[in-house]
């Protein structure tokens, strides 16, 4: 069975990056802007997807241009440089050298859950250093409060707008992976508290190019509800 191409920016072949955006109501000016390169005009197809494959490697900084005065991050960004309004960054998710590759989880009925706010524990790296102490309490499952990128340096996590980009106020994606890796080494699982029923009030641009994502008939404190 053929799987659909992933959203966002992915390494699709050596030296090649695929940029894929669902933008069924995008303005005619829609373009991919990679820092240091000429803009690439994008035209969504009948299914609403716009795509470009370019030469490149992880580390490229990019945004999508909607108008002369409006450039937005990738809604499927895996890393932001400059908070939720800044550039998205291409990452190579397979580059981290996992140590505890034999981890297969624990029975759910064995779960002793410890919920933590990464920012209050010194970020991903700070929390990783505390894991042995947490494990000695008998904890078998670490639950992280929401880490999706949110505006500003501090937040409980419920105002996230980029669900695939771990907030850099807590550290890098590799530091998050190192935290998870260390937990597995202590026979501890990791799960995320996630927010899928709304976006935060600042930094969500989907309504500018994917209006069908929302249902204007259902209002919420954060605007139109997700359809």
UniProtKB/TrEMBL annotation:
The keyword Secreted does not apply. Residues 121-207 form the Glycosyl hydrolase family 13 catalytic domain. This is Probable N-terminal region of alpha amylase (Partial). SUPFAM superfamilies: (Trans)glycosidases, E set domains. It comes from the Bacteria. It comes from Bordetella parapertussis (strain 12822 / ATCC BAA-587 / NCTC 13253). GO terms for biological process: carbohydrate metabolic process. Keywords: Carbohydrate metabolism.
């Amino acid at each position: 069975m053929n799987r659909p191409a992933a959203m966002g920016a992915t390494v699709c072949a050596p030296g090649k990056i695929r940029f894929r955006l669902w933008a069924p109501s995008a303005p005619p000016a829609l373009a991919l802007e990679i820092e240091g390169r000429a803009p690439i005009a994008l035209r969504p197809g009948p299914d609403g997807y716009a795509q470009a494959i370019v030469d490149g490697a992880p580390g490229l900084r990019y945004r999508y241009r909607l108008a002369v005065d409006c450039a937005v991050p990738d809604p499927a960004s895996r890393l932001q440089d400059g908070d939720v309004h800044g550039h998205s960054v291409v990452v190579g998710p397979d580059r981290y050298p996992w140590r505890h590759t034999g981890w297969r989880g624990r029975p759910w009925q064995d779960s002793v859950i410890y919920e933590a706010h990464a920012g209050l524990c010194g970020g991903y790296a700070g929390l990783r250093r505390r894991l042995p102490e947490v494990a000695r309490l008998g904890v078998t499952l670490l639950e992280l409060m929401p880490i999706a990128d949110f505006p500003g340096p501090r937040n409980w996590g419920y105002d996230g707008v980029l669900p695939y980009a771990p907030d850099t106020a807590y550290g890098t994606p590799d530091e998050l992976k190192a935290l998870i890796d260390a937990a597995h080494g202590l026979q501890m699982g990791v799960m995320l508290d996630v927010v899928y029923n709304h976006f935060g009030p600042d930094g969500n641009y989907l309504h500018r190019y994917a209006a069908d994502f929302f249902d204007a008939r259902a209002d919420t404190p954060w605007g139109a509800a997700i359809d």
